[in-house]
Specification:
Length: 130
């Protein structure tokens, strides 16, 4: 009993959603593999060489696919299944600003206020607190 079709028959290529002929798809995968060996992570370079705006590897069920497009711009290379990360917010009210450690939201509000001993070791007259 066989474990399924040979790998080369499972490889697929979709160009703007349209499946590429099996023979052409296999040849594109070969070129893609060779390119990525020499130019690790350079999807945009491979896409340009092949006449596409973008190429993204992915999985369709259990079948490896290359999604090529002549109209969609290239996204950064990411592991299969990963969602593109949103850029960090610079607005502290929306969780941006400086990186935060764990703990309660009250502890993440920035430096301690003047009423806390660690931030104001002297009382209002300038004498050290006890």
């Amino acid at each position: 009993m066989s474990g399924g079709p040979p790998q080369e028959k499972r490889l697929g290529v979709l160009v703007d959603g349209t499946p590429m002929a099996e023979k052409d798809a296999h040849a594109l995968w070969e070129r893609f593999s060779d390119w990525m060996e020499e130019h690790r992570g350079d999807l945009a370079g491979f896409a340009a060489q092949e006449g596409f705006l973008s190429v993204h590897p992915g999985v369709d069920g259990d079948r490896p696919v290359l999604r090529a497009s002549k109209s969609t711009a290239q996204r950064p290379y990411a592991p299969v299944g990963a969602e593109p990360a949103a850029p960090p917010s610079r607005n502290p009210a929306k969780g941006g600003g400086r990186p935060r450690a764990g703990g309660s939201p009250a502890r993440q509000g920035g430096p301690p206020g003047p009423d806390r001993r660690s931030a104001n070791p002297r009382d209002s007259t300038g004498k050290p607190r006890k």
